[in-house]
Amino acid sequence: MKKFLMLFVALFAFVGITFGQGVFPIEGLDINAMFASLAGVAAGSVIVSALLIQWFKVTIGWLKQVISWLVPVVVLVVGNLLNFGFMAEFSWLMTFVYGVGAGLVSNGIFDIAIVQALLVALGLKKKKV
């Protein structure tokens, strides 16, 4: 029975990958799509901070935390300077507050909905009607 179950799992493990393939080739990398939302920046900053920690071989716990808090702020500042995505027309105050918000989300302290509600309460984001 265990062999039958393993055969069943092995046969159907790649079905989703087979049906998930696209027909059209990817034409290029759209930077604006990567920086389209606060959630995208928070998710991307997790990857960038993990790569930086691995690249610099950081082993000290507090330094890892500092890197993971600074990366979202730096990503938003660079995005503001280069006019990428949703942060293209931000003021500097909005850039830093959104960077702290992305840091809160990427470090798992708050959910994206809570951070967006805080931004609406601060008057930095317009409420959707």
Order of helices and strands: HHHHHHH
Report the helical percentage. Answer: 55-70%
Largest sheet: none
Overall pLDDT confidence: 82
Q: Beta fraction of the residues?
A: under 5%
Which geometry do the CA atoms define? extended
- Low-pLDDT sequence parts: none
Total of DSSP H or I helical runs spanning 4+ residues? 7
For the record, give the distance between the C-alpha atoms at the N and C termini, rounded to a whole number. 56 Å
Query: Structural class of the secondary elements?
Result: mainly alpha
Number of strands: 0
* Number of spatially distinct domains: 1
| Rg over alpha carbons | 20 Å
Please explain how this structure is put together:
The chain is an all-alpha fold and 129 residues long. The protein has one domain (35-129). 66% of the residues lie in helices and 0% in strands. The chain contains seven helices and no strands. The chain has helices at residues 2-12, 15-19, 31-34, 38-55, 61-81, 92-106, 112-122. Helix 4 (38-55) crosses helix 5 and helix 6 packs antiparallel against helix 7. The radius of gyration is 20 Å and the shape is extended.
List the helices and strands and how they pair.
Blueprint: H1 2-12, H2 15-19, H3 31-34, H4 38-55, H5 61-81, H6 92-106, H7 112-122
Which short descriptors sum up this protein?
mainly alpha; 66% helix; 0% strand
Q: What's this model, at a glance?
A:
By secondary structure, the chain is mostly helical.
